Amino acid sequence: MNIKKENSLVFWLFLAPVLLAFTVVIIVPFFLGVFYSFTNWSSSAKADGGLQFIGLRNYTESFKDPAFAHSFGVTVIYTIFNMMFINVVAFALALLVTSKIKLRKIYRVGFFVPNLIGGLILGYIWQFLFNNALPSLGKAVPALAALASPENLLLARPTSAIVALIIVGTWQYAGYIMMIYIAAIENVPVELHEAAMIDGASPMERLRAITLPMAAQAFTVTMFLTLVQSFKQFDVNVSLTSGGPSTMFQGVPVLGTELLALNIYNTAFLSNFLAMGQARAVVFFLVLAVIALVQVAVNKKKELEL
Fold first, then answer.
1. What is the pLDDT of residues 204-249, one digit of tens each?
2. Which 8-state DSSP code applies to residue 187?
3. 176: Cβ–Cβ under 8 A, 6 or more apart, which residues?
4. Pseudo-torsion of CA 24, 29, 34, 35, nearest 10°?
5. If 230 and its partner were Cys, which of 3, 76, 82, 285 is the partner (CB 3.0–4.6 Å)?
6. Any idea where the domains of the chain sit in the sequence?
7. CA angle, 296 as apex, 295 and 297 as ends, to 5°?
8. Which of 118, 134, 156 is nearest to 236 (CA)?
9. How confident is the model at residue 306 (pLDDT cuts 50, 70, 90)?
10. 67-305 fold
11. ∠ at Cα 147 (74, 165), nearest 5°?
12. pTM for the complete prediction?
């Protein structure tokens, strides 16, 4: 056996455990899930006559369900605004901690720490802040008396509850995205900034003409990460709002802040429609894959323009 074949064999032997784990944990469950989405699979399927193939019924009934349609719309709105706020805040923080400000390394750690807190715990912490801490502050400070009013609680209405989700999502994830922007900003050659300063360019002009174009690849990565993270948000949604409060949509009551991931979970495990929940998960995967691919393609095009 020559050296090239030996190296190839060693490569595949080292890769085999990872491929096996990926196949067992990801590939096989994915295709099983697609199969079950075309059946009447549920915890009572055996008692109801066994597993049966029912075609596209789970998909058609899902698209007719107002709760699913509302969750889809709310998820899109949440994703757009969450992406925007996370990236704006993260880039601003990156500019701050890459400047000559004192204690900037400590600030980096402080801004990143929220990302280390689990989503469920984070949701309960912010739920306490929104429902208890802010009203107490409103009672203690006359100038902030409006915060003490039950009508002004962020979690009391669907629209403001979505705002609360965006606030928590930005607070949690901006520090992580900031680290990517820091790497991109620090990778910009210092000579470019020095030459621009000699030519009399202002900080904003240097930001627009040097930093943003040089950090274009970072924007592609961060937009993709925030898109996927926002679209599949689940744990904070569960602990902060549990999908509530309720609202009316197409003449029926639905959960006002139930994002797609939570809707799939509730359909499968609370309503016991496992196959329908799996069908919605397949739709969720396809929509997210298409949107992510389009976003990456658009950002790559923007990179070339910059």
1. 999 998 999 888 889 999 999 999 999 999 999 999 999 989 999 9
2. T
3. 90, 112, 115
4. 80
5. 82
6. 67-305
7. 90
8. 118
9. low
10. MetI-like fold (1.10.3720)
11. 25
12. 0.92
